[in-house]
Each structure stands twice: as C-alpha cells, then as structure tokens.
Queue: 3 jobs
Job 1
Amino acid sequence: MAAPSDLGFDPWDPAFLADPYPAYAELRARGRVHWFEPTNQWLVPHHADVSALLRDRRLGRTYLHRFTHEEFGRGTPPPEHEPFHTLNDHGMLDLEPPDHTRIRRLVSKAFTPRTVERLRPYVRDLAGELVAGLVERGGGDLLTEVAEPLPVAVIAEMLGIPESDRGPLRPWSADICGMYELNPPPETAAKAVRASIEFSDYLRELIAARRKEPGDDLISGLIAAHDEDERLTEQEMISTAVLLLNAGHEATVNATVNGWWALFRNPAQLAALRADHSLIPSAIEELMRYDTPLQLFERWVLDEIEIDGTTIPRGAEIAMLFGSANHDPEVFEAPAALDLTRKDNPHISFSAGIHYCIGAPLARIELAASMSALLEQAPTLRAAEEPERKPNFVIRGLEGLSVEVR
C-alpha cells in the first residue's frame, strides 16, 4: 500500500483536476485500496471493487439507521449546519433500508417511466429552441446557453415550479452541491446552509399550494403517493424535490460540456458522429465513461470488510473512484481512447445497486436531445477557446465552454 505522500492523488491540485486519469492509472497499478490521510478515506480505484462495493450491504450512505454518531466514532455535525443536514439526510440518496426502500418506492409511484417519457417532446422542443438561439448568435457559452437551462427547465417543469420562480434554482443547487466536495471550507458550508433554508422554505409553500390545488406535476404526485398507510412526510417531499433537481441537472450539465469538450479534442470521433447520428446513444454512454461527471462516491463501513488483504474497520469511510473505475483496462479496452462505437460499456456513472440513479432515463433523454439539436442545427460547431475547469473534484465540470458556429 503506497504512502499518502506518493499516491499522486491530489484533488486540490489544478494539474490533477485538469486530467486525473494518469494518476488513477498509477493508483490502480499500486493496488486495490489506498489510505488517503488528508480526507481520512480509503480510496478504491478498480472497477470490479467499486461495482461490488456499490452493492455491498455492509456499506451505507448513512450509519444513523444502526448507530449514533458516538457509537460510530464520529462527531456530531456542527449545529450551524443543521438546515443542510436536515435537507440532505431525508433524501433517499443518503438513506438506507428500510427508509430508503419506502421512500424510493413511493417516489417511483410519481416518477414513472410514463411520466418521464411524456416529457420527451418538451425536452426535444426546448433543446431545439436553445440551440437555435445559439446558432442565431453565431455561438456563445454552450454551458449557460444550452447545457444548463435545458435540464433545469425540464426538472422544474416536471416538479411544477412556475417559470417565474425558476431563477434561484441553479444558484441554490450549486451552493448545496458545494458540500459534496472533499473537506469543504466554512464559507462553502455557510452558502449551503443558506441555500438549504431558502430552497426548503420555497418548496414548503409550493407543497401547501399543491395540497389545496393538485396539478399534473411531480410535487402533486409525491403528495398523492401512498402505499397502504405509508406516505411521504413533508420533509421527505422537500428533500426528494431538491435531490431530483440537484442530481437531475448537475450530472447532465457537466456531462454535456465535458462531452463536447472531449469531442472537440477528438475530431475524428466528432466527424464520425456528424456523419452518423445513429451513434448518439452509444456516444452518450461513452462520453459519460470517458470524462465522468461524478468522480467519487462515498460509503460508510457499517461492518468490517477486507479488500485485497487490507482490513477496513467499521466506522471508516470508503471513497469509490468512479472516474478511475470507468478507465480500468481490466474492463474497458483502450480506456484512454474515446470510442463512440464502444459496444461493451458497463460504466458506473449512474452508480449501481439500490442507489442507482432514478433519473438516468431522463438524463439520457436530455443528453440525446441537446446532442441531436447541436448536430442538426450547428454542424460546424467548434470550440472558440480552451475552457477553464471548475476547481472541483467530486463534481467534475467546466466553468464554461465558448463555441463558434460558422
């Protein structure tokens, strides 16, 4: 097992953030699990291990269904962070059975394949309008003009949030998601707390309005969802709506700009895609594998486990490196190469196991719609300049992507 100082894994180094994949290759070559002192986590870089651990019930997104903070050897979160934790800890992503099972089952009653499929024409039309505006202007920032407004509008439409109320959604989401980075600083926590309070207050009012006058939207569906005597509490509805917005657009926004930047840097692959739009489905999967929007996913060790002879005790935290797993040569042939025709592509960008992304079908619809519109309306689309990468590791994206249409 390598010493922390020579792992080559530095999630705060701009050079690492620009291209973490060579460091991942080194991690995989050195072993299956590594202790990383700066975050007190065990790093797991191999696809087989990550895939297995995502399904291993000895690990959990929370431990509070079995232990107190003290019993688990963890300190109580600072009281000033309570609004963030109340919001975050009642969402199904951060719960384990039986609460996770109950909430996911009830949410699934409202978030049905039919509900998602019904959005397809709206997504297609909106993507077309956004791209048409970009083309008319001769280019612009692909992130702010297409990648971002599309999924935000779609999930807001799905939830039933009026257009006039949608302005704060992206800033709230960005501030809350800042807490998912490694060792977030106090100012990041303060922003997340403020956004949690404001977003929760807004949704509480919207839920009250939908109770009086139900509509054909997801909030109304969450209110109505029940199974025998079980219903979602108001806090569970609020946390679910925030989770669906955050997870429902963060990954899509970053997959879009990461993907197009990868295409611009691989002109032969982009030319093949422009020549054959039937490659869009496999292109989406490959681009999500090639530059993974969510690089790391964490789990608590609820019961002692062993990885390659290393015992990891109860109370430890495991950091599963999705970006590394998606570049594992044991699973992907020539993983450093972008291959839009890749047939065997078991990437784990949408996670796996009971926490597999419930919004994956919607994300794929959105990514296909924007890609189709850009290929059809902007066949000469090209990068105007090299983009600046966000100084984040866990949620990987760009500050913007300036493009030209000639």
Job 2
Amino acid sequence: MSETSPERNGTSKRIKLDIPEGTLFGMGNPLLDIMASTEESFLEKYSLEANNAILAEDKHQSMYQEMSNMKNVEYIAGGATQNSMRVAQWILREPKRATFMGSVGEDAFSKILQSKAEEAGVVVRYQKQSNHPTGTCAVVLTNNGKCRSLVANLAAANHFTISHLENPENKALMEKAQFYYISGFFLTVSPESILKVGKHACEKDKMFCMNLSAPFLCEFFKDPMMKAFPYIDLLFGNETEAAKFAEIQGFGTTDIKEIALKTAALPKENNNRKRTVIYTQGAENVILAKDGKITEFAVNKLSEEELIDTNGAGDAFVGGFLAQLVQGKSTEECIKCAIWAATEIIQRSGCSFPKDLHYPD
C-alpha cells in the first residue's frame, strides 16, 4: 500500500505504490471526442436529447462536420473506459498500472488517442483497422455545459474482435490483471470478449466491474447485457440508466434504492462475494447497495460558475473508484475518491485533469 503525507492544495508526497504493473485491465471503445457548446435548436435539428447517449444513425453523420466548423469546437481523447483508465492512472501516479484494449483506425486520430493515454501512464494495446477510421463521439453541450448529449460514431471501434484477446501477448496482459472494468457501450461491439474476460475473472476469483452506461443499452442490448450480468461483481450506473434497467427487468418500482437492491440480488456466478451496485444521481446522493443494505453519500456541491462541463463526470467517478479499489481500500473510501475525481473533472473542459493536483489520500 502507499503512504502519504499531506501537503497544501490537496497534494501529497507519495511513497511508491506496492501495486504490480497491469493490475487494472480495461476494454472498450476508444473515441476522439468532438465537443462544442450549442443551442437547444441543435438538439432538435438532430433529434437529440440532453443528458443522453446514443449510437449515430445516418441522420447524424452531417453533425460531425457541422460541429468541426464551430468556433468553440475542442478535440479530446475519449471513450468511456479509456477515460476511466486515464483518471485511475492520474490518481495512482505510478505508470503502467492500467492496461487498455480497444479498436482504432490507422490514422492521425488514433495517434492522438494513444499519446493521450500513454501520457497518463496507461499501457495501450489497440487492435488496428486499416479499412476503418478511428471512431469519434459528438459531445453536444447545452445549458452552458451543464447538459451533454453524446452521439458515438464507432467506426473502427465497432470492429474489435476476440482474436485480439487471444493473441498470446495480449492474453498474458489480460490474465495478469486482478481488476477488470468494461463499460456497457462495449456490449454493442464484442459481447463475446466481455464474456471471455468475465469468465476468467470468475474462475480466478478476481474483481469484474461493468457500467450500465446508457438507457438504450438496457433496452436494446438486454440479451448480451444479461449474459454478462452473472459475472459482474461491481456495477456502476446513473439514475436514468437505473430507471430504464428497472423498467426492462420488470422490477415494478421507480425507487432508486429499491432498484439498486434488486439489481444487486440478480443471479451471480461467483458466490465468494455479493454484487455491489453504485448508482450516481448527478448533484444528488450516490446510492450504494452492498450486502443487502443501502448507504448514501453526499456529493460535493458546486456553484454555477464552478461547473464547467459534465462530460466525463461518470467516467471520472469510475476512475477515482478504481484507483482506490486496486489499493485494497474500503468501498466507502473508493466512493469518496470517486466523488472527488468527478468533482475535479466537471470543473474543466472534457475529461481532462490538472497534473499538479493530487488526491489527498
């Protein structure tokens, strides 16, 4: 474990972590975010909803160029799981503790993604596609950045195959890890790869974590989601995802605490530990369902001026949680760090973080 001594401004002097390289393994869709602030009329033009996430359809293709032409456009290395790996590495401050796999094109965008991930200390093992460009995600900000609508054009990310995991070098990296995290978005790409990782984690009694990620996944990708569910030791989600999950599963309740308990109680393969469920609710309390009990955690309230951009808040929350989980910290301490990380990220544009600010652990 690490030892620290507090310093000013939330920084700390850290003694080297006793955590092996490659302890944390992430798999998902690496996407370059194209982010811009718009008016509500832009949402209406492309039939989008604030605070929602969807996959791009034909009617959305022109929006990427339209946003690229906006004066306030920004390009940020993204993709939910890759973001969480970057945040976890930022907090751990010891490189190569996290490994990430996903699929990209052989182009300039993939080089940007890889450089940003490696800059944060993540070991990147992309499956590269010569016939497909690197995926992008339109991040449409409205209400002065307080609301965001995500439209993912997966492109190369949609072509990840289980063969990449079966490559001996990559397989060794996967098997070396002790903690695994995959966002729900990957259910649309390679559910067989999710099952491979989940089954390995179950057989070796390692921790397997997932995220509901978006309401549409709970509904339209129910079958692959529920095939993976028995292997999930720790599940993340937000209030809108939890509500849709409860509706599709027929829980018969809209109370998020009851939904969390019912979610935790769904069938599970590894009986050595009960499933833990964590649902965030924006500025409202975080809900933890563990061992048949509910615990609530207050989030840090920010002023209107302090809140810059909610994009990446959920990814940062997960990254903060995982950074403490791999150190053997309690669930309460993990959530405390998760809230801290999310609070820091929403005070900046995109899922980015200041290098000189450290978690006061």
Job 3
Amino acid sequence: MVPLINNAGGTLRWFVEDVWGQFGDDHTRPGVPLLLSERKNTDGSAARVGDETIRAALARAAQTHLPDWPDVVTPHVLRHFCASQLYASGMDLIAIQQLLGHAWIATTMNYVHVTGTHVEDAWLAGQQRAATRLEGLRR
C-alpha cells in the first residue's frame, strides 16, 4: 500500500498508463515492480530498479529543483515527510504505524513532525466540532 499524498494520483496514473508499458513487461504478472529497471531478470522480465539508482536520482532531482534546500533528500526523509503529511491530514498514529511497518508506536512518533501551529490547529478543529454538535442540538 502506498499513500498518495499531495494529489500524486494523477502523476501515478500518467506513469502507469503512459510510461510503465514502454518497458515491455506484463503489468498483470504477479509481483511486477512499479519502478522498472532497463535490466532484465533471467526469465526476461523487467527487473526492479535498485535502491542506489533511486537514491541517486532523488539526489539529482533535489539538487536541480530544490537548490536552496539545506539537507539531503533521501527516501528515508520522504518516509518522514509522508508520515507527517498523513498525520496532518487526519490519519491516526496507529494507522501510520501499520503503514510504515513499525513494531513500536514510539518509532512512528519519531517519524511524525508537526507544524508550529499544531496545538492551535487542534484547538480550532475541536472548537469547530463542538460548534457543529451544538448547532445540531439547536434545531
């Protein structure tokens, strides 16, 4: 399962429909990789792209598109970002823990980074929920 944050569904749909098929692999084959390498497995099917290839491509893309970013963008940093975005969008910590495959909730809590206005945002959301409930009682 891969969460599609920040409207990534359109990009993934484009990739699957327009790019993926260009690799000449059977997309219905069980276990077919989403990110394919130009290399082939011994049975002739497309191999999965390697970790270092992804890491290097991500570093080049970050250097090109995020020149002012002070840190290195890695797949691990993206896991933290994704966990934080899911939490900010309302996913509970237990669901994020299961999604990331963490045995301990404390590990997941280290992945979730909240905004500086988190407490205020939570308070406002609680006030809005209370106001909605009260409005329902008035009718």
